[in-house]
Amino acid sequence: MLQLSLFNDIEEEKRESVGEQVALIVDGNNVLNRAYYVSALNPNNIMKSPDGRYTNGVLGFLKMILKYKDELKATHLAVVFDEGRGFRQDLFQEYKGTRGKQPDELKEQFPLLRSLLKGIGIPVFSHKQYEADDRATC
């Protein structure tokens, strides 16, 4: 298994091989946030669809995951999104309490991205108790 961290490139944690199959599981919240903010640094990069919806984060997201899929020669790809704050919020009420409000221009891209991924056949997962970067140890 490889854990892909966009902060530290690719960390090889443990590699288990089943033939030539490689699965890439993407933290959708992390990658969309990064794609949005990288492009939002330059106001000329803020893209909109013809109907006025912001799309710069979605475009950056797709470019990033397709690049990693190609580099890793992944045969399987799935995206996992956070759905709420899960068990951490129950344990500590101030969990992520210091974060600022997410810009509307970014917030509106999450449903667009989910719809697009489903439309092109990339499985999308989420669970109310877990965040996308949580992992189980085997």
UniProtKB/TrEMBL annotation:
Gene3D superfamilies: 5'-nuclease. One of its GO terms (biological process) is DNA replication, Okazaki fragment processing. Residues 21-137 form the 5'-3' exonuclease domain. Pfam families: 5_3_exonuc_N (PF02739). One of its GO terms (molecular function) is 5'-3' exonuclease activity. 5'-3' exonuclease acting preferentially on double-stranded DNA. It comes from Cytobacillus firmus DS1. This is 5'-3' exonuclease. The lineage of its organism: Bacteria, Bacillati, Bacillota, Bacilli, Bacillales. SMART domains: 53EXOc. InterPro entries: 5-3_exonucl_a-hlix_arch_N, 5-3_exonuclease, FEN, PIN-like_dom_sf. It comes from the Bacteria.
